[in-house]
Write the structure tokens for this entry.
Amino acid sequence: MNWRPDRKSKIPIYKQLAMYIENGIADGTFPPDKPLPSERGLAKQYEINRSTAVAAYDELESNGIINRNRGSGTTISKDIWGMAKKRIPSWNRYIEAGSFLPNLPVTQRIHKELAEANLINLASGELSQDLFPMDSLREITSNRSFIGPLGYDHPQGNEILRKTLADHVKKFRAIETDSSSILITSGAQQALHLVVQCLLKPGDAVAIEDPSYHYSLPIFKSAGIKTYFLKTGKDGLDPNEITALYKKHRIKMVFLNPIFQNPTGTLLPEDQRHKILELSSEYGIPVVEDDPYSLTAFSGESMRTLKSLDRNGNVLYISSLTKIVASGLRIGWIIGPRSVIERLSDAKQQIDFGHGSYSQWVANDFLESRNFESHIKHLVKQLESRRNQIIASLQTFLKDQLEYHVPQGGIHLWCKIKKEHNEIQLLEESIKRGVIYVPGTTLGSETGFVRFTYARENEENIHEGMKRFADAHSYV
């Protein structure tokens, strides 16, 4: 028996041992007429803790593969292949073997706490219910008859909505396009998945910002994509790093969130935007622009997206209504060359046969209504007020203990904690006090940062949430 546990694997050692024994039972390594090694014997033979051996046998016993009898030791179940006792699939093995990776454990913990506990939510990257245009949406659904098709729609999404979006991005984002170059998706998240799955292959290298929302996504690892980092801060990023990464790793794509970036809230300077487009043309590297926040500038100024500056078709543009209207509508879109859009729409059709007609109708009518612009003005005013509140609360409770850049739009505040601390302990202490946020390492490679989202709570709760965080901060 030459088997040894792989101590570098992400699979716990007890699970590795359980799988080894189960496979050994199937191939005859462990004969059915002989007892299995004792827990102490397993621990000695494979140089593991006895508790690890116990956990492995616990799992095998729960799946009906072995019997453990006091006095006679551990034996293979005599009915393992019989009909009297039906075997339970080893679901954990299937879970761990899947190619689609789970969220980071910290991210899973945050989602679980938000679902189960009553916490002040400074973690979720979405608007609060009171910022949704509920009256306008009720008017659309209550006073107007739905006359659209209820069967499968066009693979790229409803033609009327795509034409409306073409008008929308021209008016509000200075992007020239037409309906044939637009694909409707289930939010920006699905758009990113389609791009990664359809336009890249295992082993390809891409560049993403650090920190960034993309850093937290397991989709790159699931697809076997190698990620390399572009350091991002209050002054943007150094475009020359793209050149260096291309020459060293032959990166195939660059993923950017240039307008009020998540999590830093920074605005990529326009000269850097132009330089990135120049490099994209020079090396033939596509740029995937994720743009959830360009309509939320507190100054009211129109933000020039990379796509609006793109004259050569180098930018795939992703946006949605999630951060500016309502996350539950699940309306996002990709704008790009027609051949790319057709490829992505073919994949989307394989996944879900196209987007739901009803939500597309609601989105179309709202974008066309006179209420859209007034809603955006109200939203920006409310977000700015909440931004001001979180800054004021930080000054009250944590003055000089955190460093941050004051965002001029968007919904996130990125803070560096000056004192050394245990990131997980700080999160746990904050949760105990009734407030939750996102630890920085889930969004970037450096330690010592936190992301607060101020769109999910009102000013009173933001103030109380920062007070509770300050209490946790002083404790650790």
